[in-house]
């Protein structure tokens, strides 16, 4: 199973660097600090929600001895979900001789939906488990709720544009590697370009999976710290 594990954020993410390479553009270092850019995405209602999450006084935590088995269960569930999604990405069901982008678009959109369907509930379950650990962890879980609400629409909009970038990459490769008009269209005659595109698309999907899993990994790391015995 292929796996991408370069967990950074924003313009330093593996996904952004990969898309930049495929689109043949440079990634410029932003002039504003990350906190300054994030603040521009918060409306006044978001700021109130964030303040309430930070100032809240959650219920008392359950004892760590009772929660240690749950920690192992959460670890296993996260690993299972990620493995299932990575395996789905690795199983390229697109027609071997496809020389039109439409089937690749359908496949990419289907896998994006699978990621959303698998990761969203997993993140929610991790928040619930984390909130039971301690007041501090409950505040962290509440903050994550607000961050998801603020960033979800922007993230969805940005990721929705990935298939269009891939289509441009597909077109460039096909124009450089299409067989002559007298030859029947097949993957072998198309040369290496289709193989290259399939590999690039798989790498983009794996990078997107890594990107989408970052909040889950952050919650899981907090969960590990909360369940660690002194």
SSE diagram, text form:
Elements (H helix, E strand, L loop, with lengths): L13 H10 L10 H6 L4 H12 L8 H27 L11 H30 L3 H26 L1 H16 L9 H4 L2 H20 L1 H14 L3
Shape: elongated
- Average pLDDT, all residues: 75
| Tally of alpha and pi helices | 10
Q: Which class do the helix and strand fractions yield?
A: mainly alpha
Describe the biggest sheet? none
- Give the number of DSSP strands: 0
Regions with pLDDT < 50 over 5+ consecutive residues? Answer: 1-11, 57-69
Secondary-structure element pattern, one letter each: HHHHHHHHHH
End-to-end C-alpha gap: 36 Å
Radius of gyration: 21 Å
Q: How much helix, percentage-wise, in residues? A: over 70%
The percent range for strand residues is under 5%
In words, what does this structure look like?
The protein has 230 residues and is mainly α. 72% of the residues lie in helices and 0% in strands. The protein is built from ten helices and no strands. It is elongated. The two termini are 36 Å apart.
Please outline what is shown here.
The chain has 230 residues and is mostly helical. The chain has helices spanning 14-23, 34-39, 44-55, 64-90, 102-131, 135-160, 162-177, 187-190, 193-212, 214-227.
List keywords for this structure.
230 residues, mainly alpha, disordered N terminus
């Amino acid at each position: 199973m292929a796996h991408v594990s370069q967990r950074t954020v924003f313009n330093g993410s593996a996904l952004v660097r990969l898309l930049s390479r495929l689109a043949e553009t440079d990634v410029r270092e932003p002039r504003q600090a990350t906190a300054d850019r994030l603040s521009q995405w918060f409306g006044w209602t978001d700021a109130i929600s964030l303040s309430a999450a930070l100032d809240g006084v959650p219920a008392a935590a359950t004892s760590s001895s009772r929660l240690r088995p749950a920690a192992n269960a959460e670890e296993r569930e996260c690993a299972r979900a990620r493995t299932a999604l990575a395996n789905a990405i690795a199983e390229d069901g697109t027609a071997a001789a496809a020389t039109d982008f439409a089937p690749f678009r359908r496949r990419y959109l289907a896998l994006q939906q699978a990621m959303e369907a698998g990761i969203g509930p997993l993140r929610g379950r991790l928040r619930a488990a984390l909130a039971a650990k301690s007041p501090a962890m409950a505040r962290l879980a509440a903050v994550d709720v607000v961050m998801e609400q603020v960033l979800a629409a922007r993230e969805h909009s940005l990721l929705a544009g990935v298939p269009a970038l891939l289509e441009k990459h597909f077109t460039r490769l096909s124009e450089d590697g299409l067989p002559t008009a007298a030859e029947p269209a097949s993957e072998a005659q198309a040369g290496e370009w289709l193989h290259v595109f399939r590999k690039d698309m798989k790498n983009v999907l794996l990078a997107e999976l890594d990107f989408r899993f970052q909040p889950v990994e952050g919650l899981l790391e907090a969960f590990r710290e909360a369940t660690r015995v002194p």
